[in-house]
Design goal:
By secondary structure, the chain is of the alpha/beta class. The chain is 33% helix and 15% strand. It contains 13 helices and 13 strands. The strands form two sheets. The protein has a seven-stranded parallel beta sheet. Strands 10-9-8-11-12-13 form a six-stranded parallel beta sheet, with helices on both faces. Helix 2 links the parallel strand 2 (31-34) and strand 3. Helix 6 (218-228) packs across helix 11 (325-337). It is an enzyme of class 2 (transferase).
Length: 368
């Protein structure tokens, strides 16, 4: 069986790219198609992704890449429309929500399956990492472009034979915006059992590990830590102009910015933190809220979106209801009142294992 994998574009590694890695592990002979690739940004994924056979769209010849990624969104449907995958038996689209990969052309005997992390957030009113399209001089053009792209997105979304959503939250979006049913298969978290050394001595800090972008609300955590004199550690790579601006403004006697950390350092931070802060608004699913639980670390999350599926309230974490420094502090106060069982927290993380992910994907595909 000839298999192709399709992804928006390959730049910084995130949750969507981790899913693509797992799909490639399931189908090692699959060819990979994408708008364009930027290997120097692949970081920890470089060793594996650099071995792939990757086919790029004609978009790779456009100037000012990768800085102009968001500006080429209007052209991106054409990147995929000109990809002819009709010779493949199975095409699996990993839809990250940046471009429109469902537009690939397939043959009459080709089965098209889409694993959807979210419909494009910028089209449907959700916060995004890029703030350029919200600036006054860009907004009129952006609104016209988005009107066109919503029609294109809906049309392309009728092509897959099956939709798989990464959460019930995203399944609801698929139903609302695409009028399509979907199966839910939670994304995988790679659990390195050899690096779990039992209970770790807990530190006195709260932790955020994330790509540094505006939609993660990192500024709110910094404000809270400074206002209430709580220790906060932040790790992650700034993405784009907005990310670099956020990093410049991270300050305070109790706040420490660590930059991008390696895997061993990340595990140490997650294992020893008092709690992990998950602050994104309208989180699609939020694997960042699952990973701390692998190491028995509870999560303090904004009550919304996919966090409601990743965290069991008062068992593996707590929720707060107001996305302000004061609201976050109330969540921390609630966290302090409870006793935490690391074994219970770790057990919840096992729901999102690679084995369960692979099983779920195979069950959907076998039913085609």
């Amino acid at each position: 069986m000839r298999v192709a994998l399709v992804h928006d574009y390959l730049k910084e590694p995130g949750g969507a790219e981790a899913v693509l890695l797992m799909l490639k592990e399931m189908y090692p002979e699959a060819d990979v198609y994408t708008a364009y690739k930027f290997p120097k940004y692949w970081g920890r994924f470089y060793e594996r992704m650099s071995k792939w056979k990757v086919f790029e769209s004609w978009g790779k010849y456009l100037p000012f890449l990768p800085g102009a990624l968001s500006y080429y969104t209007i052209l991106s449907p054409l990147f995929f429309w000109y990809m002819d995958l009709s010779d493949y038996d199975l095409v699996i689209v990993s839809q990250a929500g940046g471009y429109f990969p469902n537009g690939v052309r397939i043959g009459t005997k080709t089965k098209l399956v889409t694993y959807c992390h979210t419909p494009p957030r910028f089209l449907y009113g959700y916060d995004t990492a890029s703030k350029e399209r919200y600036k006054w001089y860009w907004r009129p053009i952006s609104e016209l472009a988005n009107h066109i792209l919503r029609m294109v997105d809906f049309t392309f979304a009728q092509k897959p034979h099956v939709f798989i959503a990464n959460s019930k939250n995203v399944a609801n979006r698929i139903s609302k915006f695409y009028r399509r049913k979907s199966s839910v298969v939670y994304p995988p978290i790679e659990i390195a059992m050899n690096k779990l050394h039992g209970d770790q001595a807990r530190g006195d800090y709260f932790l955020i590990i994330s790509r540094i972008v505006g939609s993660k609300n990192i500024e709110l955590a910094v404000e809270m830590a400074n206002k209430y004199k709580l220790k906060l550690k932040i790790a992650g790579k700034p993405i784009g102009t907005s990310g670099r601006e956020i990093v410049k403004n991270i300050s305070g006697l109790t706040v420490e910015y660590l930059g991008e950390v390696g895997e061993d350092e990340k595990i140490k931070l997650l294992s020893q933190a008092r709690a992990f802060l998950a602050l994104e608004k309208d989180a699609d699913f939020g694997m960042t809220a699952v990973e701390p639980q692998v190491y028995g670390t509870p999560v303090i999350a904004f009550r919304n979106g996919g966090y409601l599926e990743a965290v069991i309230e008062n068992k593996t974490g707590v929720f707060f209801d107001e996305l302000t420094a004061e609201g976050l502090k109330r969540g921390i106060d609630k966290f302090k009142e409870l006793k935490w069982d690391e074994k219970v927290i770790r057990k919840n993380a096992l729901r999102f294992s690679t084995e369960n992910f692979k099983k779920g994907i195979r069950e959907v595909i076998s039913g085609l």
